[in-house]
Structure formats: C-alpha cells, structure tokens
User: Which sequence fits this backbone?
C-alpha cells in the first residue's frame, strides 16, 4: 500500500512546447522527466512515448500545417488510480468534420508495392489510449485521454 | 541520420546508428537507407538493435524503403528492441516483413 500511496504522489502538471519538427521530442523529454517519480516500467514508458509522439506529430502536421503559423501545444497531466490522464490542446486548425479519425487497421494483405506507408498514427493512439474525447472549444482543439499505466499494484 | 553498410556476396547489412526513427528523423532515414542500399545484393538486412523507439512515421519510412527496394531486393529486419517490436506487432506489419530476433540469426540464415 505504501507503493500505491507513493505512486499517486505525482502532482498534476502542465507542459507547453512550440509546434515544429522537434515538438514531439521536446514534449517527451519534459513529460518523461516529470513522470520519473512514477517509476513506470519499460512497456508503460513505451505506451506513453508512442501515444504522445503520435498526438503531437498529428498536431504539428495537421493543426499547424505549413504555411500556417506554428503555435503552442499544451499537455496537462494528472495521475489517478486508473492511470495517467492527459489533456492535449492546441490553437490550430480544427479536426476535419470536428471528429477524431477512426484509425481503422490498415489492409496489409496486399502486394509490397501497395502497402500503406502512413495512417498508422491514429490506429496506435486509439489502440493504446482509453476514454479518448475531442472537443473544439472556441479557437482550441482539446483531446482528453487516459493511458492505463502507473496503476496501483493488484 | 547515420547508418553503416557492410556488403557480403548475397546480402548487405545496413545498421542504424541512432536510437530512434521518429517523425523528425524519418526522411533522413529514408534517404540514408536508399543511399546505403543503392547497389545492394538481393537481400538488405536492416539492423535495428540500437533503435529503442519508432513512431508511425518511422514505421512508414521502413515500409517505404521496402517498397523502394522491391521487387529486385528484399528488406528484412533484425535486432528489434521491445519498443520497436511493439509497433510492428500492433500494426500487424510484423506479418509483412521477414524479422530476425538478432543480427546473428539473420546472418546465419542468409549465409546458408
């Protein structure tokens, strides 16, 4: 029980990075540093890295595409018994149709020359993240999600 | 993106010397691999044992490299770390590539 008490000792925090090619790397450095007190396992760190990298790459590419001016990306994070809750927001273009892509699995039973080279990002996010919701608030995109990591020992 | 290439009779080993192939590195990786494998024999073994993170852009770049080499040359993967293997498994792209756990296993299989 001491372990679970220690694990929930992560104070809620927020980080902000500027949209650009290095945004995902910068955010991950800050985020993983802040999460170090949770002593996440390698597999859990992998989940955090993948989801956050995909989320930020999508924002850089689609919310702040060239030649639109880049802008801030915020990640608010808090830890609860059911995992890590992230709120990722930006001030860029809204999602098409104000909806998060479905991220369906890609068709791979096809000749090499027809294999997909993209479109894996939302599939990975939807596969690894739970309770994902998207809202367009005034000039802001906001995605809330939960990562089932840092759970109390059973 | 630095890679090293070693060519034997029937195959060439391209080793990625960086620890990640992410969105920021994907284009460079694609270029580096194309250069390294330009005159490669029929099999190109991509040694990923130093890579501890790829995202969907990195995965896309590896798929693009395989498509670029085909149909004359096959791209096989070796030395996947757990985090890299996870991305291939989740996206089911592990069914598309020949994958060897270690570089040694890939070398042995292709020297026979």
Assistant:
């Amino acid at each position: 029980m001491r372990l679970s008490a220690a694990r929930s000792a992560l104070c809620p925090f927020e980080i902000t990075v500027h949209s650009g090619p290095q945004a995902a790397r910068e955010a991950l450095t800050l985020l993983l540093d802040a999460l170090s007190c949770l002593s996440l396992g390698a597999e859990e760190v992998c989940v955090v890295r993948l989801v956050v990298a995909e989320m930020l790459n999508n924002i850089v590419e689609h919310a702040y595409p060239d030649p639109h001016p880049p802008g801030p990306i915020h990640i608010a994070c808090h830890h609860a018994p059911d995992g890590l809750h992230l709120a990722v927001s930006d001030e860029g273009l809204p999602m098409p149709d104000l909806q998060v892509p479905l991220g369906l699995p890609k068709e791979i039973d096809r000749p090499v020359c027809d294999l997909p080279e993209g479109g894996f990002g939302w599939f990975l996010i939807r596969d690894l993240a739970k309770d994902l919701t998207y809202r367009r608030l005034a000039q802001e995109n906001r995605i809330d999600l939960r990562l089932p990591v840092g759970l109390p020992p059973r | 993106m630095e890679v090293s290439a070693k060519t034997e009779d029937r195959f060439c080993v391209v080793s990625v010397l960086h620890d990640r192939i992410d969105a920021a590195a994907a284009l460079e990786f694609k270029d580096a691999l194309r250069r390294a494998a330009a005159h490669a024999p029929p099999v190109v073994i991509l040694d990923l044992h130093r890579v501890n993170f790829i995202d969907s852009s990195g995965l896309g770049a590896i798929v693009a490299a395989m498509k670029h080499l085909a149909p004359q040359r096959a791209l096989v993967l070796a030395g996947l770390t757990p985090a890299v293997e996870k991305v291939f498994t989740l996206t089911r792209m592990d069914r598309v590539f020949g994958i060897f756990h270690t570089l040694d296993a890939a070398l042995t299989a292709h020297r026979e």
User: Anything to note?
Assistant: Chain A has one domain: 2-147. The beta strands of chain A are 13-18, 72-80, 83-90, 130-137, 140-147. Chain A touches chain B through 29 residues (CB under 8 Å). Chain A is about 30% helix and 25% strand.
